Amino acid sequence: MIDLLGYGFMQRALIAALVTGLAAPVVGVYLVQRRLALMGDGLGHVAVTGVAVGLLTGTSPTWTAVGVAVLGAVLIEVIRERGHTSGDVALALLFYGGIAGGVLLVGLGDQSAARLNQFLFGALTSLGPDDVLAATLLAAVVVVLGIGLAPQLFAVAHDAEFARVNGLSVRGYNLLVAVLAAVTVTVAMRTVGLLLVSALMVVPVATAQQLTRTFRGTLLAAVALGAGASVGGLLLAAWVGLRFDADVATGPTIVLLSLAGFVLTWPIGILVRHRQRVRRPFEDEVPDEHLVADHDHAHGPDCGHVAVPHGDHVDYVHDGHRHAPHGRHYDEH
After folding, report:
1. Is the pTM here over 0.85, yes or no?
2. Residues 212 and 303 in one domain
3. Do 252 and 298 share a domain, yes or no?
């Protein structure tokens, strides 16, 4: 195994696996927050058409895949925002159109299925120096923008209306996330493959959510888990291949290792959440006393203020205080 790490192809594979594992969860955390976990799959299918264009024209499949995937990402945001089609239907359109166009163009270009499989399921050991350089540069862009703009991207993903009120360009940041997702797909297509790339974007985030309670903690943990799964999956596939003299695919091994991490942490997440509920069963503490206050008018069913259930009566919220119609007092919270 040590001798294997001395070969150039293995060193290139390790670098590509590392940068992919770092970049994919950075984008995945925003997709999960926006409930667009399957967007990576949709863009992966679109990128198949980009790869086919590169193979058909004799140009670099990486850069043609980037261009087509970015175009698909912009289209899905436009369809989702301005059209009458929901997000899941727009993703379905990408699924079917992308894979159909890719298979059609590969057939027209008289390319073998084995060549296309390198992009569909990954082929880390076949990477050349130019492939590694392109993946590293693209991954660096994703990581810098994804982490550097984390406050703005999180605000838009978590509550678009709140972000809009605070002056953020919701449309612009949504487009940025979509474009970063498209770039990440092309970075990972030679590592885990276009059909499995979404797993590396989503599973480390889901695993991190079992162990963390804040967005920043989830982001950092997901990046660490993604990098660990990518490098660990590559080394595991190489070890199994040497030990049993078998041809072990690196992409599926990386994904399965990532899924194993989720399975191991899922019971821990259940235990942690249960202990938190026992320690603090309610979000807000119930006040021990009421304070007397005078108001300009009596609060009741017709006063126009928000009604909030409180015990066996109804309080009416006004100016941040809770007022009860059965007496002239309010809760101090």
Report:
1. no
2. no
3. no
